[in-house]
What does this fold into?
Amino acid sequence: MIYLVINDPNGNEGICITPRDLLAETDNYKLYLGRGENSADALLCRIVKSKAQNGIMYAEKKLLDELSELSQNLEQERIAKQGDDGRKIHYDWLFPVCEQSFSCDATDNRRINTFSVLDASWDKFVPFLKLKNGTKVDAKSAAWVLGRFLKLQAFLDESENCRSLDFNPDMVLIAPKQHRLVYVGWFDELLHGGDRSYSHCDLISKLNIDRMFDAILSWVEKNDTEGEDEFMSWLKRFTGYFNNGLEAHVAYYEFLDALWGKGYHPFTFNKDGVWKNVDNFV
Amino acid sequence: MGRLVFSKAAYETSRKSRGVTSDKDVTRKGEQHVRETGKLPPSVDPSVDTLRRSMLRLDPTEDGKWEVTVGCPMDIETSVDSTGSMGDNVDRAMSALPRTYELCSAMLPGYDPQLALGFFGDVCDKFVLNRPQFEMEADKIVGYLSEMNPERNGGDTPEDPQYSMFASAYLTSAYTNKIGLKGYYFLCTDAPMHGTISNDTLERIFGEKVWEALKDNGYDFDPLCRPDLRETIEDLKKNKHAFILSIDAEEFYQRYFEGRIIPLLSTDYLPEFESAIIGITEGILEPEEVEKYLESKGVSSFDIKHAIHALLALPFGAQRELEQQNKVYIPKAGDIFENKTDLVPTIKREDDAGVEPESESSAWL
It folds into this structure.
């Protein structure tokens, strides 16, 4: 099989890529699921098609580093206010970690970014749209996915220094069994919105939340389960209502608590190593 | 055509000789000219010698040929809002001129940077546009800046920079375009623009002979169906590496200049941001170096943070891509041209290494 080992000039582990590893291709880049040369860990690899976009790749690395820092700061702020009760917000589960960003001869000096995902493996993730287009789900399964969507928006709205994100469902990966959702559309966001006005944030949040509600409404299959009608009605009633992810996230989990009891958690409980919010799998 | 380039010493001397001793009200001379004549001084009047030219500087040789004196000219045009809160921008441009030239030059090794630093206002203003020729010597640039007539006070939004864009797109004759490269165009504003270009205003700004000037420059427009605003901007982007330096006006310009808008907090660091943009576009300033470069030039961390993502999203090395695509030879000082109007020298100062072919290994990546 044809494969290529791309060596990071910074001395990090090489990356093995084969043509079969191609996951997606846009006008601007190719996305591969490569492997660490020695560790064999799955690495998502983005390679731009033109050197002209090397700057955006570096900006993506920078942005993801900033998001990671913001996420940690918000975690610390929460602990400072409420004490360490073992719960973690884990905003950092919603975006990938950019491990390496470099250009080299193998890519004709086009930049390559490699990504891992915290506390999980890319092997478990599938594109949300692929899942959505291939299968319908019950309301309870859809509920956690929407929770993660809203959490991502809440993170962007809570971290005031952060940019506004024009959300693209094509760029959502989910790991159904782990109840994980990761957004990987940061390059595209920088490509199209590097100069987006910060005064647009409210409007963009509103549009994103409405898009999320819409995506979930069209995904759920009616099968007369308990609370299903109320869940759908709530989404329809509040479409167009929220323009801030934090508010939407809080209101949504209050609604879920009232509807189905304490099975849904806005944050992650990792006390005693138990993930308490994984009862409702897709 | 000479070998003089901008120098700090010449700048200081020129300011003294022109009576520009303060950093405020540097345009007294220009404003006095307007009071006395009702017209803009010729050096900044867009209707005088309507085309703006950026040319290769050549000296005759003993054997009747022509030698490049400095290097390939690089036209850099800026058009800055001079209304309302932006009214003191000519003063700022004058103070920042040495930084503008030196920082841009550092990103253009081997080139002959030629600056046209203009200002725009509103169609309701007496003068919508102050547009000088491209110049490279301190005395000439200090001269035209001191003869500007900024609107300064008052003003409302939107403004009318579209006439500056029209001029850059169609009323510029630049050597860079002739050989397949692009010069630079920066529009700095804090307000949206009116969405139309009118023939009446074109003739008011550029004179009734504007149509002839356009024709002379290769644009034989019928006034009844000349390019509208969107087409003008598209042509501007074809001819120039065009950028908007926006102070809270990103929202409006997004529809025309997506990916080419740099959000700024003020005009304090225009030279630093312009030079960074040029460095990125020329492929001189690597993405990893942009932030450090701005820091090293004294730009505040707030200003950097505000602009950095947009800066990094600019096409890196776009000028180099043009050079490769169009197989451009960039003339160097010492090259010899057979005729003054030739585009390619007959004797090159040193062997051109040429464009390296793209590697074909891992072509599937």
Notes: Chain A touches chain B at residues 2, 4, 17, 19, 30, 47, 50-59, 62-63, 105-108, 110-111, 161, 163, 190-192, 194-197, 199-200 (CB under 8 Å). Residues 269-282 of chain A have pLDDT under 50 and may be disordered.
